[in-house]
Amino acid sequence: MVMEQIVTSLRKFKETRELKKLLARLDPSGKHESNLAVQLLQLYQEELIGRSEYLALRAKIATGHYLSRLRSDCPELRGALYLYDTDKLRIWNASVSHMPDVFNEYTQGLDVGPDIPEQSPAPVYATHMLKIENVLRSDHPIVSNHYDMYKRAAIQSFVTLPLVHGSESIGYQFISAERPREFTAQELSRFSAASAYLIRELAAIKPYMIDQFERAEPQAAHKHKKRP
Asked: Model's pTM, two decimal places?
């Protein structure tokens, strides 16, 4: 199993190219892996991985579990999580396995300055719930700013739920559908309850994750330039 290979690689080499490839293959839904949380904690206690790496791996698994459960319970919905960089006014994909690739690329490191109202520290979707039940008929500024991308990604309705820790916006959930729909009170209650769980997993790791995303950005840009 992938986790067993990770443990072996860590114990032999601490961090190698092989380990990075194995981490990339780690199934965020936890399928085919056993006792991941226990094994990760053991690696951290044995000082084979640092605190940031431990929290990042645990967060990946936890958020993956949540999004997989969402997909299973509501197959017509697609879920994503974004981290909000309050200093540079950008959003970063934290876990977007269910969203179209074109939307993932668009939102990775997106400058959201145009989405921030005057005298506000963040876009509305990073601080308040936002429901758009029909993108085609909405005149909301957020829809206007990103309408072309919603169309390309086949997003016709969505709801955002902020992840706020104290006074800081960590990011938000983005849950969408390919057709206009009304989000029920029961659904919104379930998504809101999940937010508390996601905040616990992401609050401590947000600075580390954003730093990793920013480091990876030049490499991704270089790969795109090399494509024919």
From this structure: 0.77
